[in-house]
Amino acid sequence: MTDTADYPSDDFYPEPTQPSGWLTDEDLAVVRAQLPLVYVDAVPVRVDDSGDVISVGLLLRVNTQGVMTRALVSGRVMYHERLRDALLRHIEKDLGPVALPQVPPSPQPFTVAEYFPTPGITAFHDPRQHAVSLAYVVPVTGDCRPQQNALDLAWLTPEEACADDVQAEMMNGQGMLLKQAMAHVGRLP
Amino acid sequence: MTDTADYPSDDFYPEPTQPSGWLTDEDLAVVRAQLPLVYVDAVPVRVDDSGDVISVGLLLRVNTQGVMTRALVSGRVMYHERLRDALLRHIEKDLGPVALPQVPPSPQPFTVAEYFPTPGITAFHDPRQHAVSLAYVVPVTGDCRPQQNALDLAWLTPEEACADDVQAEMMNGQGMLLKQAMAHVGRLP
Amino acid sequence: MTDTADYPSDDFYPEPTQPSGWLTDEDLAVVRAQLPLVYVDAVPVRVDDSGDVISVGLLLRVNTQGVMTRALVSGRVMYHERLRDALLRHIEKDLGPVALPQVPPSPQPFTVAEYFPTPGITAFHDPRQHAVSLAYVVPVTGDCRPQQNALDLAWLTPEEACADDVQAEMMNGQGMLLKQAMAHVGRLP
Amino acid sequence: MTDTADYPSDDFYPEPTQPSGWLTDEDLAVVRAQLPLVYVDAVPVRVDDSGDVISVGLLLRVNTQGVMTRALVSGRVMYHERLRDALLRHIEKDLGPVALPQVPPSPQPFTVAEYFPTPGITAFHDPRQHAVSLAYVVPVTGDCRPQQNALDLAWLTPEEACADDVQAEMMNGQGMLLKQAMAHVGRLP
What we know:
By secondary structure, chain A is α+β, with helices and mostly antiparallel strands.
């Protein structure tokens, strides 16, 4: 299904190898039609010495239709995986092994994004599945490099990240989630 | 499996009828060994005119071993169901149709309880499954009556609810979740 | 000082009588130049049965320059007054005695608005003082009537309340605070 | 007044020099009887690579009665000072200049502690004043050394910090605030 590539996620491209016990792609397809999946969304930020957000990291990808899209770090929580380990795994997968993320000490997310397969129920939409995603702002202090399927990682100011042109390049409501994150940190333009 | 009845949940007793499209018990058993499930936990409270918590509602049940247990309102989020609708459904299922719950306007939970099948990873444990449960304090203003499998619904003060004897009757870490809720509302004894 | 009337607050017009022990206007003026004051901001909302925000209540006032402004419920916390009592007092003062507000059970605000006398330090500005305001979304279920100095209380959808024309009528960064509230409840347009 | 020394704060011992524009001790005494003051409380923690709290830093002091007390980092927010700058200032004052605190990106506190001069209104009490304190969990990654009036800085596990003997050494409800912090990060014993 070619259009799945439109949607930034851990399933953007098939993962070549899976730890034993994880679902096969077929099993996952079946489950996706029957159960909400647990996801995490991370908004990677650079902060100054006082913790104030300076910039937001957005992944740049080209989908199978050749359209450029921007995305947050996002992905599924695996069986027997803690939320904070899922956050670390997806941040490493997308930003590389030396991003040095500061995962928040509390599991309380700043919001929960409910991605529905039907558009319009919430601000979030995912044609593949119903995903319930816990969203966190995660300061990163190390060297970040786009991995795998991403062309680039761009650091934008909160103002730039919330601007219409950038918002238009974000899919499935992630532009909204980014604005909610900026509202939470007091940096919504 | 007799011991499943120990664990207060929407699966405490088999549900007689399921809307079409929901998982069969067999399918659910398979999925439970492979994916984290999305849950909600509600801490039902009575508040005074200023919103201050006066008492906490706990369900009293007897499990198949004849042991008395106390529980919060808790249950699975279904496919294509919003979190707030899952909260309403489980509150109605456990407290009756005229409990008049005030579901919070924000989806931000006060915490996320990660129930692992392996004890000791977090404070929460569920031998049946890995559940990620979004926890909310929900004021109820109407008439609450225990439904289905519950013997009673007891309204305890925060002090009583956090006391050792009550905590000992709560399973799977729900006693901890209750204390986290009381800490959140400023009423931890 | 004529321009104080621009700024919606408990000091919009001099309060005729003060409980003993409260500051005189003169004393308050001195303190205002030396200490941050504690404020609360309430975003009054109507919610549906599932707690989802349907509309936001904004007060309409005309300032001394004849300009129409819109405002949230906002005001000072008095000596020896609990935050939840300050919320109730200001809601009653602005929306009348039968608004039936549901003050949240937790003291955790959705954000803290730091109003500085110098513009540009945060999104919030108050030329009179440095105020640290704890902000809450407060569902109201009763009959709301504008009191005192307000011409009207308008119920707007989240979309309308965040629109540029309404935002332009809000002073001191309260438009931003309203957008942060809508982001928090998942209703930012 | 000898007993003020019982209460861990920025006023534990008179501060020798004040930036111009700050209140004199006399002025502050007058204001304290008339207005709530804005405070911040910081719970300094060590976290592991996944952000999970490993230990809590408590300051050890001896008061004028020769009684040993333990305290969080706590202090007043000054006129024209941002909350995050107040947090940094008090952490540096108590833990030294190379503690490397990670002040959270969001101004949303995990709770608000309302210290009343009258005991029993909330869990928090301060005989000197009415203080409204915004409380944050702050990971510190650098070298922490007790400053000024503190004898020691002890790093305790969450279990140790919440134990009765340690709680008994904390004044004014700060033991409760510590437990609320541990509840918030999922580490209440």
